[in-house]
Amino acid sequence: MGLNRILAWLLAATVSIGLGQRAFAQVAEASPARIMLAFEGGSAKNVALHLAERMREPLKRPVYVEEKPGAGGRVGALALKNAVPDGTTVAMLPIAVPVLAPMTFKDVQYDAMHDFAPISQIASYRFAFAVPANHPARSFPDFVAWLQSHPSQAFYGSPAAGSLPHFLGVLISKAIDIDMTQVAYKGFGPMSIDLIGGQVPAGISSIADLIELHRAGRLRILATSGAKREPQLPEVPTFIEQGYPTVQATGWVGFFAPPKTPRSVIDQWSAALLATIRAAETRQKFVELGLDATGTTPEELTAIMAADIARWAPIVKASGFHAD
């Protein structure tokens, strides 16, 4: 083969490879992307569907939502860990999956700080402490005084064992120096039935869960867990205002990609999320769902996770709780 023919062949091969790579990239870009949910239904699904619909344009691809519930969020977490890091799979995870589950399950099979690639925190939310509507307590100090005279009633409901409401209850117990026992339910629905009916003297859940029942007079929120009063509940003081400065808790929801996802892909998702979250329509939707729209960089979400792990680890350890 002459030199000219060799050069021509190499040029043709190079062009062919380049066209093939470009075609592959175009197919990958047009491929549907999925947002996995580690828990089934609820407000999380509403948020994911809202975001999926509005991120199609900035991502230039269809986006759909896939529920991956089970094992306290671990099924979805492991599916994310093992997904192909090509930008077609991300997961929307609440704080419980990356922060609390590794502290409470002996064989969680993932390390969130290494096995997930943070994209952005999209929302935060606080919690509320509520009692039945006919309970004599009108404030949280009233409830503490009532507990002191009714020690056999020192228990509270939470939507799930190992959840942030569970450990917020542990934090409250320490602050008031009364050992309150958690009654764990399988979700907020069953807990709310017993709380309204007075089968449990108190319950802890997200403000989004409790606010409509409070407004309807079916239960009474005595305190919220933020640093300041909630705009939706201006009449309800925080734990801090009522003399318990250590009782604070904030939940959040974040987007994560599989490990080893290229930074260019992370940045593409991050930009699409931030643009969507900053839209007035999305912010209003989040307010309706009891969420504060946030939007962070990947580095900021990493720092938030590290801070929450450092904060909750000693509280979880002191509780002695193990999920398995």
Please summarize what this structure is.
The protein has 324 residues and is α/β, with parallel strands linked by helices. It has helices at residues 3-30, 42-59, 74-81, 96-104, 112-115, 140-149, 164-176, 188-197, 207-215, 263-277, 280-288, 298-319, and strands at residues 33-37, 63-67, 89-94, 117-132, 155-158, 181-184, 203-206, 219-224, 250-257, 292-293.
Walk me through the structure:
With 324 residues, this protein is α/β, with parallel strands linked by helices. It folds into two domains: 34-122 and 254-317, D-Maltodextrin-Binding Protein, domain 2; 126-224, Periplasmic binding protein-like II (D-Maltodextrin-Binding Protein, domain 2), CATH 3.40.190.10. Helices cover 48% and strands 19% of the residues.
What descriptive keywords fit this protein?
19% strand, single chain, alpha/beta, globular, D-Maltodextrin-Binding Protein, domain 2
Estimated radius of gyration:
24 Å
SSE sequence, one letter per element: HEHEHEHHEHEHEHEHEEHHEH
- Class derived from helix and strand content: alpha/beta
CATH class of the largest domain, named Alpha Beta
The amount of helix comes to: 40-55%
The fraction of residues in strands falls at 15-25%
Count of beta strands:
10
Question: Could you give a short account of the major beta sheet?
Answer: 8 strands, mixed
What is the terminal separation in angstroms? Answer: 70 Å
What would the average pLDDT be, to the nearest integer? 89
Give the CA-based shape.
globular
**In the CATH hierarchy, what is the superfamily of the largest domain?**
Bordetella uptake gene, domain 1
CATH topology of the largest domain: D-Maltodextrin-Binding Protein, domain 2
- Total domain modules: 2
The CATH architecture designation of the largest domain is 3-Layer(aba) Sandwich
* Poorly predicted runs: 1-28
Please, how many helices? Answer: 12
